[in-house]
Design goal:
Length: 397
Amino acid sequence: MGICFSAKIKAVSTCSTGGNLNSMSRDAIDLSSSSINSKFSSTSIPRSEDEILHSSNLKSFSFSELKLATRNFRPDSLLGEGGFGSVYKGWIDEHSFSAAKPGSGTVVAVKRLNLDGLQGHKEWLAEVTFLGQLHHSHLVKLIGYCLEDEHRLLVYEFLPRGSLENHLFRRGLYFQPLSWSLRLKIALGAAKGLAFLHSEENKVIYRDFKTSNILLDSNYNAKLSDFGLAKDGPTGDKSHVSTRIMGTYGYAAPEYLATGHLSAKSDVYSFGVVLLEMISGRRAIDKNRPQGEQNLVEWAKPLLANRRKTFRLLDARIERNYSMESAFRLAVLASRCLSAEPRFRPNMDEIVTMLNDLQDSKGTGGPRRSRTCKQNTDSGNKEVTAYPRPSASALFT
Ligand SMILES: Nc1ncnc2c1ncn2[C@@H]1O[C@H](COP(=O)(O)OP(=O)(O)O)[C@@H](O)[C@H]1O
Ligand SMILES: [Mg+2]
C-alpha cells in the first residue's frame, strides 16, 4: 500500500510501494514495473505539509463532524467509489460548516479513504495541495478535509449529475443517453479544465483523466475531480517529469507506460481515449466484449483512419440529430490525441479551439457541407444524416 507519511513534499511525493499489475481495475493504480522506481523528479522544492494545510482556505473538519454530516456514512448516501475510497452525500451548514440535518444547508460530497486500499496519505495530500490552490469553473471545488489519526477525508461541492462514466455506461431511468450536443459540451468543459491545468501559470499534469473523474453539475458543466495523482509538470526546458507509473489501464499514454516519462501530452492521450468513449459509448477496456474489441483504442484505430468506416464507431444510442461531418471531425481529433508520438498530439489549447468550433457549428459540421437525408423510421419521419461517400482527401495530419 502506498502510504507515505513524509512531512516534506512539493505537491506529490513519489514514495509508494507496489501495485497490482494484473488487475484490470478501472481505478487508478500503480502501473509501474520495478525498473522505473528510481526515476523520480529531483526538481521539487519541498513545502511542508503544515504549510500546505494552513495556506489553503480549506476548512479542517473533525471526523465526528463528517460522520454526523453523512449520517455515519450511510450506505444509501453512497455516491460512488474509486481507488481512494467511497464518496458519500452529506449536509453541512453553509456558514458554520458544521453538520446539518439532511435536506437542509449545503449538500456536499465526502470522500473517505479506504484503509485497506492501494491509495493513502500521499494521494489525499495531493488533492488538498492542488485543489486548495487551483480554482476554475471546470475543476471541482474542494471545501475542506479531515486529517485525524488514520482518517483521511475530503469534502467537495456536490455535483448533482455525478460522473460522466455513469451517464455513458449506466442504464436506467435516470441515465438517459447523452445527446451529441451534450457530449460536445462536456468534452469542451473537460478540455478547458485540462487546458487550465496545463497553462504556463500552473503547469500541472492531471495524470488520471477518465470518465469517472469528470463530474457534471445540473447543467452538464464538466468539472475535473480526483487530483490524487496530479503532478507538477516539468520546469525549464524539460519536456517531461519521470515518475512511478500510476494511472488507469486503457487511459495511460504508451510512452508513459513504457518509460515513466510524464508530460502534458500524456493527459492529451487520455483525453483522446475519453473522446473515443464519448463517441462510441464503449469503455476504454471492456472484458465483456469479444476478443479484438476489448481494448477500445486498438479496436477503433483502423476505423478512425478510414473516413468510410468512422460511422461504425458511433454510439447507436445517440439520437441522430447531428451530422456525420461533426462526428468525423471529433473522430479525427480523437485520432490526433491518440498519436503514438506525443509531439504529434495537439495541446489542450488547440483542442479547446477545435471543440469550440465544433460546438459553434451546432454539430452540423460547420463550414464544410454535410449531407442529410429524410428517412422513415418507426418513430415517424425523422431527419437523419447520411455518411459521405468515400473520399480521397487526407483526414489525418
Ligand atoms: N463532488 C461529487 N459530487 C457527486 N459525486 C461525486 C463527487 N465526487 C465523487 N463523486 C462520485 O464518486 C466517484 C469516485 O470519486 P473520485 O473522487 O474519483 O474517487 P477516487 O479518488 O476514489 O477515484 C465519482 O466517479 C463519482 O461518481
Ligand atoms: Mg477517481
